[in-house]
User: Which sequence fits this backbone?
């Protein structure tokens, strides 16, 4: 009985230990495509990618591939359809198990965000569906996109982790950040 109890305690301790980040499966999140053609919302392309990536990394047991590593890959501009060979190449070059991508369309005061991902182990592209709502609900739509992706990728939740929900105080502040970050990365800067 003592041996069995000791083994159960040791197993419980092992399960409770957090997995080192380097041992977690990687996910790369590409810029989302602006499918509405509204140049005034181009900033949202990288903003969505960063927010969805942050939600996945904070809420689930996954290692986020740094955006700087993706910039170094010199990917084609975000497009409504990402060729599977591009997704395969990103997964291989970045050691990602999944490569998430998507698009968004603003219509009046509404916004629709669709997403999908490439699963490297299966060599398959999968649709993660869409979320839609009002433009003012952007932060909820971002979190909903991350939730859809995490559910379909079957990501285990991070203990004590929670999606970031990006506590930006306004869309204007978020837009300014996303535009600045996009320009920063376009110049080859990494941090």
Assistant:
């Amino acid at each position: 009985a003592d041996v069995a109890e000791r083994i159960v305690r040791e197993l419980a301790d092992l399960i409770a230990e957090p997995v080192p980040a380097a041992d977690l499966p990687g996910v790369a999140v590409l810029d989302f495509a602006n499918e509405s053609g509204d140049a005034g919302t181009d900033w949202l392309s990288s903003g969505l990618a960063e927010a969805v990536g942050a939600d996945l990394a904070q809420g689930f047991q996954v290692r986020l591939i740094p955006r700087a590593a993706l910039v170094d890959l010199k990917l084609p501009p975000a497009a409504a359809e990402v060729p599977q060979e591009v997704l395969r190449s990103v997964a291989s070059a970045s050691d990602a198990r999944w490569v998430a991508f998507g698009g968004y369309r603003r219509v009046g005061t509404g916004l629709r965000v669709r997403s999908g991902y490439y699963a490297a182990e299966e060599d398959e592209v999968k649709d993660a569906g869409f979320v839609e709502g009002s433009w003012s609900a952007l932060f909820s739509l971002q979190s909903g996109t991350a939730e859809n992706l995490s559910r379909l990728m079957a990501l285990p939740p991070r203990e004590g982790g929670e999606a970031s929900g990006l506590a930006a105080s306004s869309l204007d502040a978020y837009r300014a950040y996303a535009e600045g970050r996009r320009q920063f990365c376009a110049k080859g800067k990494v941090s």
Remarks:
- The CA atoms of residues 59 and 169 lie 21 Å apart.
